[in-house]
Amino acid sequence: MLTEQRGLVTEVVLDLKVAIVGAGFGGIGMGVALKQAGYHDFVILEKGDRVGGVWRENTYPGCDCDVPSHLYSFSFAPYRSARQRYPGQERILDYLIGVADEYGLTPHLRLNSALTTATYLDDLGRWELTTADGAIIRADIAIFALGQLHRPYIPDIPGRNDFAGTAFHTARWDHHVDARGREVAVIGTGSSAAQLLPKIASIARRVHLYQRTPHWLLPKPSREFGPLSRLAMQVPGAHQAYRTALHRGADAVLAPIMHRGWSALPAQWFARAYLHRRVADPRLRAAVTPDYPIGGKRIIFDSTYYPTLARHNVRLVTDPIQRIVADGVETVDGAHRPAAILVYATGFRAAEFMAPITVRGRDGRLLHEQWRDGAEAFMGLAVPGFPNAFLIAGPNSFTPAGSNPTMKEYQIDYILECLRWHEQLGGPAVEVGPVAMANYQRWLRRAIAKTVWSGPVHSWYKHVNGRVVNPWPGTTRDFARMLAHHPVEAFTAVARDRNPVPEAASLF
Ligand code: N01
């Protein structure tokens, strides 16, 4: 279906209805939705050599999902096997490859195509996308499904380049390196480090784990379902019933944790009690006890991390790092700890949405300038000044309390509505209106002010200026409810302005 004139790198090689950027959960889900709605004139650009997003990029030992399989999947495509309660990295990757294949997305994929610029052409009302290999793609609609956790963050610790051993980020795991019997340093104690630590500690001679801030942790049930549950899952309708129950459970139990005040106290009490049970050494326990409210950073769900901290070959280091030297890491107390392998479990540049792509909207405005003080998008999916462009998993649409594939499906359904409306209009581009955006932002600011994230605790949820730009401050059901209106109520038609911006105060 895709035609291309190879070699003519400065020419338009594709001219389509829709260009999707990114082939993770968001891009694949969008592709399936387009096909099912009868749109076949689209491409999915992917910087990697296959689909999968973060589940292609993160292959560190122990890489797993701490969200149950029945939630961490598309509503229309359950995992084939009902054995596992939680999917591992390879299983999720296979699942995404399988969905792309089964739903006929393969011919639409353009792999190894990293987007560099995206420009709205005012005169044509269309988007022009350029990839790193020089290809130019034009499309009526651009949908950016880049995800939030795909650009590794490596802190600029003094001496970083002096390290003589092997150093890499968890999302760039070097599988040629054998950690058996060697000294390993792991910097960071978030979810990636917690999953990695038990695996690496089981083979390394010694692991020094450098913690700057402890994370709250809740236990995770065993990965495999028991025989009875497996049997129950075979009953027709059981999958959907269990999925619904998990959704409701997450909304009822996890979502209240994000709010300041009493609603998080039961979870915090439970986490403390669990910590007390699993870490016998009072000094170690004190060192890993957070001093901020639970939920301030994403909670780790894991049952193997605490016991691993007590292993004979694991040392938790809480003295701040002073510098990295050729053969190890030095802390401010003057201690030098050897390392042959240095793992940065230091997270992602999550607040820098759309970077490093240069995105120009209406009248040549630059997205990164518009977002100088922090990214903002209507329901995480549309930005004023950028007509016919949509985001999946854009600002403030990550849920720390439920299923992110589900959040993306809600956005996808809404984007599809926008596409249909755009077609009905027969010409003008559609863009979120200023009133709807202002009302939404007002609502969002008020909602975030009531969350634990609004406090001083540092996390990837925030822009460097402290503004909370990543998480959604409600339940997944709230998100669905707020998207349950026709786009005409929030969007406006650019050019002919046939649909004036409504007073959208009633929406939020
Ligand atoms: O990254 P993080 P992650 N010196 O940002 C530390 C998802 N995920 O890759 O807290 C010393 O959470 C930093 O310290 P501090 C999930 O959403 C999902 O672990 O900033 N330390 C922190 O401890 C998760 O939230 C699954 O003080 C430094 C760590 O590095 C997200 O990915 C599995 C430092 C970074 O933690 C990111 O998790 C895994 C410095 N200069 C991940 N700079 C699932 O199972 C940073 N740190 C679905």
Number of strands: 20
Q: Proportion of β residues?
A: 15-25%
Annotated CATH topology of the largest domain: FAD/NAD(P)-binding domain
What is the top-level CATH class of the largest domain? Answer: Alpha Beta
- Give the number of helices: 13
Cα distance spanning the termini = 42 Å
Whole-number total of structural domains: 2
Instruction: Look at the helices and sheets and give the structural class.
Output: alpha/beta
Q: Using the alpha-carbon principal axes, give the shape.
A: globular
CATH-defined architecture of the largest domain: 3-Layer(bba) Sandwich
Output mean pLDDT.
93
How is the biggest beta sheet arranged?
8 strands, mixed
Please bin the fraction of helical residues: 25-40%
Point out poorly predicted stretches. Answer: 1-9, 496-508
Small molecules in complex = 3-acetylpyridine adenine dinucleotide
CATH homologous superfamily grouping of the largest domain: FAD/NAD(P)-binding domain
Organism: Nocardia bovistercoris
Pfam families: Pyr_redox_3
Protein name: NAD(P)/FAD-dependent oxidoreductase
Question: What can you tell me about this protein's structure?
Answer:
- This is NAD(P)/FAD-dependent oxidoreductase.
- The chain folds into 2 domains: 11-151 and 350-494, 3-Layer(bba) Sandwich (FAD/NAD(P)-binding domain); 160-344, FAD/NAD(P)-binding domain (3-Layer(bba) Sandwich).
- It starts with 11 loop residues before the first strand and ends in a 15-residue tail after the last strand.
- With 508 residues, the protein is an alpha/beta fold.
- Helix 1 (25-36) crosses helix 11.
- The radius of gyration is 23 Å and the shape is globular.
- It contains 13 helices and 20 strands.
- Residues 1-9 and 496-508 have low confidence and may be disordered.
- The protein is 27% helix and 17% strand.
- 3-acetylpyridine adenine dinucleotide binds at residues 64-67, 149, 155, 157, 170, 187-193, 195, 210, 212-213, 298, 321, 345-348, 458, 460.
